[in-house]
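User: Can you predict the 3D structure for this chain?
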Amino acid sequence: MKVSDLFVRCLATEGVRHVFGVPGEETEDLLFSLEGSEIAFVPCRHEQGAAFIADVWGRLTGKAGVCLSTLGPGATNLITPVADANLDKAPLVAITAQGGLDRLHHESHQRLDIVRMFAAITKWNGAVYDPRVLPEIVRNAFKLAEMEKPGATHIELAEDVARLAVPAALPPIVPRAVRRPDADRQALEQALSLLRKAEHPLIIVGNGAIRERASEQLERLANNHGVPVVATFMGKGAISDRSPQSLFAIGTGFKDFVRAAVETADLVLTLGYDIAEYAPDRWNPAGDKTIIHIDVAAAEVYGRYPAAVEVVGDINATLRTLNGRLDEAPLALDRGWYAPVRQHILGDIAGYALKGLPFTIPGALNLIRKALPDDGLLISDVGSHKVWIARNFPTYCPNGCLISNGLAAMGIALPGGIAAALAQPGRAIVAAMGDGGFLMNSQELETAKRLGVGYTVVVFNDDDYGLISWKQDMSHGHSTGTRIGNPDFKAYAESFGIRAYRPQSVAELRTALDEAIGSRALRLIEILVDSNVNRALVDKLARYWGK
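Assistant: Here is the predicted structure, written as structure tokens:
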């Protein structure tokens, strides 16, 4: 048995179903070992697309997505999505090839020190030098990638090591479940004491609560005791936006309506919150909020995040304990103090209903929400549409809306749709992106078509890097260096054999969305949008805050 055969056996033991990548000369042995296994190698059109698929696979399933590249330029093409997975806390294992060990001591063709390069963007990485420790390396990579807080790991396999012989009896290491400890009782008592003293407590929930499947206990706490919940962009769906306690999301670069509730709150309980999702400077600018930190890890030292108590342990178990104690002696709160804020948010979202042309992103999102079932999934790329999706798109279930907000990398949504459709076939899925993000990985339309996966690609087209224009306009009154040109997106999709639409009226847009999403087939809808709504929002909020 070759090392590459053992490697594949180790991957299968980890439950890997797909490896996404671009083939290379130095991955030859590994590819042929995969060919004879139950694991499918999925050739993609760019390493970035492959790793973004693995990234979203990990975020949706909690099991590490796996991507593969050759050495040199193949490996460097993985850097952005691997870093994205690491900052977004999505489990991912990247495998890269390397030249033979006999040429690593000097400069040689395509040789880069990838292990050192990936050290800055992974939880752990290493190279296989001794075949006998390969099972330990693979188990370690997956254990660390999937263990809270999850992230990216990396394994380098040189081409000559891959073809070495190993004993057939050398077994993979079988994964074992690792239980997280319960929170410290004294910390729980301190948190309860602070909650009982508060009149206007508020919960900020991050993606960690979704990863830890804490939504049921979160809704129990919020609904039973009238505690409002604000989600980060990545925490959307941790509580249903139909809940009267949901105040939707916080995370925009400007002061939105939800900040009225945050400013009124005399205590903030953060739940599975990561600073990378939204800096505390934005919601606690004076650094004077009383904060209860509930997470699997201690709070990061941060000037504007002075946690009064840190309840460290399994999030779901912590909430269950808190709920049990609070059921015995409910909180005495000023219930409903946040209701006017929620009504203002709901009214604002409804106010963007499309009545005719031109189309706007928030108006189109209202129609997408109507066409998408409650348990459907919207994947957002990065751009001005991300802001609108975060603040205007009601989400009704955990992982019902995926937004990258750690690294916030453009180009994730289209390949992310492939991951979602493979992991959750039959689910209604929309991958929404701007024209800029679409063309960064549009080549993966061919991968999606070849795989036969079904989801709807929505391209908001304003011939601009719209988010940058928006921010430049806010600071300088105009934009520069952002205007771009585009091909005919409808014809482009049709050239891959994909049905595509470019609606010219609200009725046509509604029909296109209903057909595309309802079909569960691969579709593309290009929506020509007017970006003036972006500046109008800023002006509206300035009037609201009296500036």
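Residues 47-61 form the longest helix (15 residues). The radius of gyration is 24 Å.
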